[in-house]
Amino acid sequence: MVEKNYEIIDNPVGMNVIYMIRVIVFVLGIFVLALGAATVITGRLGVATWDVLHIGLANLTNLSVGRWVQIVGIVMVLMTCIFEKERPAIGSVLNILLVGFFLNRILDLNLIPSFKGVTSQIIVLIVGIVLMGIGSGMYVASKVGAGPRDGMTLFIAKRFSISVRLSRTLLEITALTTGWLIGGPVAIGTFISVPLIGPVMQTSLKFWTRQLNKLCSLY
User: Fold this and answer.
1) Using one digit for the tens of pLDDT, what is the confidence trace for 100-111?
2) In 10-64, which ranges are continuous DSSP H helix?
3) Which of 210, 182, 193 is CA-nearest to residue 49?
């Protein structure tokens, strides 16, 4: 393992290629995540927990859903940096900006067709949730930039000596409750997304981690 690391360091061309591969997977993952979120929103059967908050805020203001994704994300990253006394990671900021940008473009261009009928809407909902899980696994596997909630989750877990799972659950409940109180759409899709996104993301993460390791081993 040590020898392999030295080989990468001594081969700047190979190192640049590896980095570019990871950046491409990162951006594609963010796009797939945004596409999934837009698909779930279009399904009109409820949205993922954080999008309940984003849509609720958008309904209260003249700002778009994507813009609120960016604002909430930036606030969380800055809060984590203040608490941890660290500088914000460029990859994390890029993550936030790209998600909001892609989500707005997909919704504005009406790339996702809307369907009438519960059966069609359920299919759209499940497709969207799966896409969100796949996209999340892709960008996490790239190791280019973590999501805005990841750092806050770890900080809360460390600060209050609780598990990471409990910390993330508390964040999700807070976002869901706040979003619901300000008029965000809570429905069956919200509760389906909670247990479904995690397993899909984990499968995607394992797959893309293996693929990236194989590709990187070539350089």
Assistant:
1) 999 999 999 999
2) 12-43, 49-60
3) 193
Q: What share of the chain is helix, strand, coil (3-state, %, to 5)?
A: 80, 0, 20
Task: Say which residue the tokens 């659950």 belong to.
Answer: 169
3-state secondary structure at position 137: helix
The total number of structural domains in the chain stands at 1
How far does CA 36 lie from the centroid of its chain? 10
The pLDDT tens digits of the residues spanning 50-62 come to 999 999 999 999 9
d(CA 128, CA 104): 16
Distances (CA, A) of 152 to 23, 42, 58, 169: 23, 29, 23, 12
C-alpha distances in angstroms, 210 versus 91, 139, 195?
Answer: 21, 13, 24
Q: How far apart are CA 27 and CA 142, in angstroms?
A: 9
Range of the domain at 92: 2-217
pTM: 0.88
**What is the distance between the alpha carbons of residues 176 and 184, in angstroms, rounded to a whole number?**
8
Cα distance between residue 216 and residue 64, in whole Å? 38
